[in-house]
Amino acid sequence: MNLPHFLAGRVVYPLQERAFKRPTFTYLAELEKSQWLSRAEVEALQLDKLRRLLQVAHAHCPWHRQRMDAAGLSPERLSSLADLARLPRMDKQDAAANRENLVWQGVPGGTFKYNTGGSSGSPLIFHFGRTRQASDAAGRMRARRWWGVEVGEPEVYLWGAPVELNKTDWVKTVRDRLINQLVLNAFAMSPTSMDGYLDAMEAFRPRCVYGYASSLALLAAHAKERGRRPRLPELKVVCATGEPLYTHQRELIGEVFGVPVANEFGSRDIGFTAHETPQGQVLLMSESILLEVLDEAGQPVAPGEMGEAVMTGLCSEAQPFIRYRSGDMVRLSPEPDHAGRGLHVIGEVVGRSTDFLVRADGTIMHALAGIYVLRATEGLAEFKLIQHSTRELEVLAVPNARWSDAAVLSIQAGLRRRLGDSVQIAVKLVASIPPEASGKHRYVVSHVRLGGELDRAKSNQPKPGRMG
């Protein structure tokens, strides 16, 4: 039985955030107002937040201070968003190599170490603070409200990040239930477990289902093969995240669950970035993210043209990400939001593609189950994981200065914990890992067929869906 949503959303959830010293609901109230500002007013707000971020970075982060001084960029004299272009861009290698000189250890509320999610093959350990946490949570709450889902109403998560999986004790379980959240493991999707997930969802009666795009499509494909339409009369929307949402996946999920599918765009390092509206547009969380779309020479592209996404996290005080090269290609839409908000509109995102991994017993796992093992390996600069069969796995590894022979044993042990002791794992050291013939990077490739409708759920189909 679920807690009444007004009690979960207005009492329990705010008390939890206050106990963790996260200003989530204060920021949510600000976002509800600021989204209705004009575009010019939104950009004035961005400029004000950018000045404050640069002041923090200059005062507390030696690496940023050195770069700003070299560029002659004074936070107090920043007169327009365009002035930021005087500062060189940073990338994951910069963030990894200069971690000690990037983190503000004295940030109010403390810092928290994490690593990047998604499908990138370049591991990055970074730190975030309470403001970033509040920005992510409040941004999603506002986006849910666009779809008629209020804070505290039942929500199912089809998820699998280790930080969630490692906290499955009774305290975490009780806390989730008190705020009406049900977490289902995307790293263990056998036919039996997926039957159980569908049963659990029907009993939970969610207003929203949230998860990795490919895992949601896999669950939908399984339900379709079973001839089953989940009975979810109160469901308003399914929100897909973590990877590109392909047209065939959107259609499959919508067909099975009987509600619209909303796409979300974000990353662990930068945070919650954008979300799709009921009008079919994807809106940037402009109050928290400053997005530049640049060509190969680092110059802004014209509105409507594709370019590299370079982001500044306006709430990233604990470890400022300033002019950060995310690795994604995006296109800003020249259209305004159809509902009248002043937020920027993202027309398209071209991200990375992953496959599923399959255990010998038939359990299907999201690719992140393997990616997290590799990301936790010290000395690994880049990787590519290739599953030739359920008992044969190949890892291409680009070592960095911290690499040691012990890393091979660590990789093999970690992957066997996920995929079974019988798996043969070959780790091959290489100087670089080229992209696919399409030009895209696929960091997990599986040659194991799932069969039937399940193969339709795989994310390595030829063309991603339109985002706006």
Number of strands: 19
Would you tell me which CATH topology of the largest domain applies?
Rossmann fold
* Uncertain spans: 117-121, 462-468
Structural class: alpha/beta
In the CATH scheme, the class of the largest domain would be Alpha Beta
Percentage of residues assigned to helices: 25-40%
Largest sheet: 11 strands, mixed
Task: Look at the structure and give the mean pLDDT.
Answer: 87
C-alpha-based Rg, rounded: 22 Å
The dominant shape is: globular
Which CATH architecture of the largest domain?
3-Layer(aba) Sandwich
Into how many domains do the coordinates divide? 2
Summed up:
The protein has 468 residues and is an alpha/beta fold. The chain is built from 14 helices and 19 strands.
Written overview of the protein:
The chain is an alpha/beta fold and 468 residues long. The protein has 2 domains: 5-19 and 21-35 and 129-350, ANL, N-terminal domain (Rossmann fold, 3-Layer(aba) Sandwich), CATH 3.40.50; 356-456, GMP Synthetase, Chain A, domain 3 (2-Layer Sandwich), CATH 3.30.300.30. 34% of the residues lie in helices and 23% in strands. Strand 14 and strand 15 form a beta hairpin.
